[in-house]
Amino acid sequence: MSHHMTGQGRNQVTLFPEALDDFVNVENPVRVIDVFVDELNLASLGFNKVTPKNKGRPGYHPATMLNLYIYGCLNRVQSSRRLERETQRNVETMWLLERLTLKPLRVLEKTTAKVLKTHAVNSLSYVAK
Question: What is the rounded distance in angstroms from the CA atom of residue 8 to the CA atom of residue 48?
């Protein structure tokens, strides 16, 4: 079992009217972001904490942070507080993060900011193609 925090499955039916997967079109860019980040070898790109420690509170997986960061760049949401708000109200981010709400998002700034900034430009140029 992974020692990272994980969200619910995208096909999980809850009090939300339907399965969340039904609200995200097959051609939605968040699906491209998800597939792209899943194919990356994050450890070789310099992301730390890809392999979690077994002690303490589970942290957010770097792939989750990268998904959200790329989503924010593509949708012109640059503030970490706005990104945090998006995870609570935007169906696309709920789908992308598997209903995992990130509180507080300062974790994004502290843990992965340097690596995200160096690799996001290459990632975004690839996604844009």
Answer: 24
What is the C-alpha to C-alpha distance for residues 70 and 30, in angstroms, rounded to an integer?
9
Tokens at 117, concatenated? 């900034």
Q: Which two tokens stand for residue 36?
A: 């792209």
pLDDT, tens digit (0-9, with 9 covering 90-100), for 27-84 = 999 999 999 999 988 888 877 777 877 887 777 788 888 888 889 889 998 887 888 8
Percentage of the chain beyond pLDDT 90 is 13
Q: CA angle at residue 32 from 29 to 33, to 5 degrees? A: 90
Q: What's the CA angle centered on 31, arms 29 and 37, to 5 degrees?
A: 105
Nearest to 64 by CA among 78, 81, 47: 47
